[in-house]
Design brief:
166 residues; alpha/beta; Rossmann fold; seven-stranded mixed sheet; three-stranded antiparallel sheet; 30% helix; flavoprotein; electron transport
């Protein structure tokens, strides 16, 4: 099986919990689960990279990602498969739900990597998102504030889809 590295930024712990659950489902060891506040961008050990960030405020990246994103800009992602995931609040921030994924995507696009793990917007309640491209989210979005009852199911379906794409 391909080697997977998971990189996340988490302020409240929600995105970290999602990253850890994804790691369990994909059988990724704790050594390959990286908090971006402490991580480097040598992705050479991985075939597949998962980037996760919560969306803060009015569509902003999680604080640690604000610094890490510049490092990702300079990183070699050529030939890698990349999947995105994140957390957001689809009620209070309905018009910027999950926008952090689009910010990460804008950096990795054109770096020779393949984006996998897009998710249908069906079943989500929100008004607008920069992370919707051609009717799909750029990756998995979780709303533990308003739709926590759907979190486990969404992660399970997404990780099964990722396994097929890997």
């Amino acid at each position: 099986m391909s080697k997977i590295g998971i990189y996340y930024g988490s302020t409240t712990g929600n995105t970290q919990e999602v990253a850890e659950e994804i790691a369990k489902k994909l059988e990724v060891s704790k050594a390959d689960l990286h908090d971006v506040s402490k991580a480097n961008t040598d992705f050479s050990a991985y075939d597949i990279i998962l980037f996760g960030s919560s969306t803060l405020g009015l569509g902003d990246l999680q604080d640690d990602w604000e610094y890490y994103i510049d490092k990702v800009k300079a990183a070699d992602l050529n030939g890698k498969k990349v999947a995105l995931f994140g957390c957001g609040d689809s009620s209070s921030y309905s018009d910027t739900f999950g926008d952090a994924l689009s910010k990460i995507y804008s950096v990795i696009k054109g770096k020779g990597c393949e984006l996998i793990g897009k998710v249908s917007t069906e079943g989500y309640t929100f008004d607008s998102s920069e992370s919707v491209v051609d009717g799909e989210f750029l990756g998995l979005l979780i709303d533990n504030d308003n739709e926590s009852n759907l979190t486990d199911q969404r992660i399970a379906i997404w990780t099964e889809d990722l396994k097929k794409a890997i």
